[in-house]
Specification:
Blueprint lengths: L26 E5 L6 E5 L12 E5 L1 E3 L3 E6 L5 E11 L2 E7 L9 E4 L4 E8 L5 E7 L3 H8 L25 E4 L11 H9 L3 E7 L22 E5 L1 H12 L4 E4 L1 H10 L9 E5 L14 E5 L6 H9 L2 H13 L10 E4 L1
Parallel strand pairs: 1-17, 3-12, 3-14, 4-11, 14-16
Antiparallel strand pairs: 1-2, 5-6, 5-8, 6-7, 7-10, 8-9, 9-10, 12-13, 13-15, 16-17
Helix pairs in contact: 5-6
């Protein structure tokens, strides 16, 4: 299986640069994975494809305003940091550019000294580990100084930070948004619940590794970065009851899918659990828990393209994506949605 097999041609003007005004008015491409039939709808119509007793599983992670701009103490050179994850105490693993401005022993200040960090080590892949010093609550300082870590293909500044958060985001810890969930409004979720569909939540803190390009020619040689997940007993009970009753599990996003498939047993049942996952789902994978998927349109040759191809087929996904291009759907994080039923 070659990485190039998951390529499609995407005109740059179809990459969404900002969210639409009303989340649920984004377009929705509905794909029947049994027949290949396609419908063109709007996201608010998703309720028509969900039945009483089905369960919608959402990722309630919340994105850190993880992009910080600072200066090395005594220097005027600007240094950009992207927080990836907290390793211990107040030490964070970060991506830095330019890296040569952040060597071990260097001290960086942010916000005129509101936050100060010492570079304590450098990882094998060039990441920097920085120990922060501050007065007060770190999350409040980060919210004041940090910017949303928008993907590199988005060039416009985001005026409202909440538009890169789902309306149900709760647990702070992601370096990127679980973008399939960005289409839901609180009103739409209530209409779905009122119809008799269960809503439950998992947490997977999205790391940038999910979106890094596959650089190997052979897909099987790609190594996924690990991400932290957490599933509580309430969610496990709802999912297991749904399975026993023969109803469907609809995952909102690839992050939710990866979490459920990590912890599901061969019969599709799960239990309360937390840990780290580096599961890599590609064609040939047999899904245990997830029946249907709500997702966005993904980058060519990405692990996310491979995951959605595993739920259908590579040929079907490439054909569907080419139709989405022809129909001028909006792609990637702030783009339109797709429902694989």
């Amino acid at each position: 299986m070659k990485t190039k097999d998951f390529y499609y041609d995407l005109p740059e003007e179809l990459i969404a640069q900002c969210p639409i005004e009303n989340r649920e008015n984004s377009r929705l491409l509905v794909l029947d994975r049994e027949t290949g039939e396609i419908e063109h709808r709007h996201f608010k119509d998703i309720i028509e494809f969900l039945n009483p007793g089905d369960t919608l599983v959402l990722n309630d992670t919340r994105v850190l305003p993880a992009r910080l701009f600072g200066n090395r103490v005594g220097k005027e050179e600007s240094v950009e940091f992207l927080l990836l994850k907290r390793t211990e105490d107040d030490i964070w693993e970060t991506l830095v550019k330019p890296g040569k401005k952040a060597r071990v022993g260097h001290t960086i200040e942010f916000g005129n000294g509101l936050l100060v960090g010492d570079i304590v080590s450098i990882g094998e892949d060039g990441t920097r580990f920085i120990k922060f010093h501050y007065d007060g609550i770190f999350e409040e300082i980060l919210d004041k100084l940090g910017e949303m870590p928008l993907p590199p293909y988005i060039h416009e500044k985001l005026d409202d930070k909440e538009r890169y958060q789902t309306v149900y985001s709760k647990r702070l810890g992601s370096a990127a948004a679980p973008t399939a969930g960005l289409h839901f409004t609180k009103e739409l979720l209530k209409r779905i619940e009122d119809k008799g569909i269960n809503l439950c939540f998992i947490t997977l803190h999205v790391g940038l590794g999910t979106f890094r390009p596959v650089k190997v020619e052979n897909v099987l040689e790609h190594h996924m970065h690990s991400e932290f997940y957490q599933v509580d007993k309430k969610t496990a009970d709802i999912i297991n009851k749904t399975k026993r009753e023969g109803k469907k599990i609809i995952a909102v996003g690839t992050t939710t899918t990866r979490t459920l498939e990590t912890i599901g047993n061969k019969d599709g049942f799960i239990q309360e659990k937390s840990g780290w996952t580096d599961i890599f789902i590609y064609p040939g994978y047999e899904f245990k828990v997830v029946d249907n998927l709500i997702t966005n349109f993904h980058l060519p040759e990405s692990t996310l393209m491979m995951l959605v191809s595993a739920l259908t087929s590579r040929d079907m996904i490439i054909k569907t994506y080419n139709i989405a291009v022809k129909e001028k759907y909006r792609f990637f994080s702030f783009g339109d949605a797709m429902f694989i039923k």
